[in-house]
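Morning F.,

Quick status update on the modeling queue. The single chain you submitted on Monday has been processed. Sequence for confirmation:
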Amino acid sequence: MTRPTALTDREALVRAIATVRQMGPADCKQIDEKLKEEPWREAAEFAAYSAQCHTLRLKPWQSPPCWIEDVEGTIAKGNDGISGNYVAALLLKRMLGHGISKYEPDPISALERTETPPMPPEPAPPPV
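Structure tokens below.
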């Protein structure tokens, strides 16, 4: 599994802030206030949470991938069908496997850019 670097996480957090600012005036104001009042990392992680909830269209009780701390442990517990931790952990495992930060604001789009479709089989050689 390819682990994102601290630089990759920081880049994703910067994009998360930008994503939240584009979600609307209220969201923009909220993140700007957080950036003034809280440490940058905390505000940026909040932005990642907000962006993932928005882009993944999560219900208020569902967890985004950025909240998952123990991927394998969460997957091992199985699907509880409510909180979304299991699904979030499966998504995070795919993300990390492709070197995508857990703070990526749009996980599905990032995966689509990195996951290549399988190559079609080579045609059979002509008979001799």
